[in-house]
Input
Amino acid sequence: GVAALAEYKWSPWGEVAPLHLLKKYLQCENITFWHGPLPIVSFVHSKFSPQTIVDHAFKHRVAIRCGDFKAPRLLKKWGVSSVVRVSPLHYNTIHDIDHLIRSLDDLFHPQ
Output
């Protein structure tokens, strides 16, 4: 979870690429995710449906989506019918991704 990121090596400028931080978090959580050359990460969680994750994020004012994104055959090949999709762009900061990660962590590890 978030605690595992505390040991993450930050750049000399105090920040890392937002997408890289998100992928590191998902790896720490052992969450299955996919990414390619575009700044998009799709993932599934073993306990929470994509819709549950999106609804929870929305309550924390985080805009992410879920669905098949016009790729049902590919998702079927991966063994899922829907994924959560995070698509950070050039205007998203490391703080935006940190807020997303904390909202996910709130769902995955309730206190």
Confidence is low (pLDDT under 50) at residues 9-15.
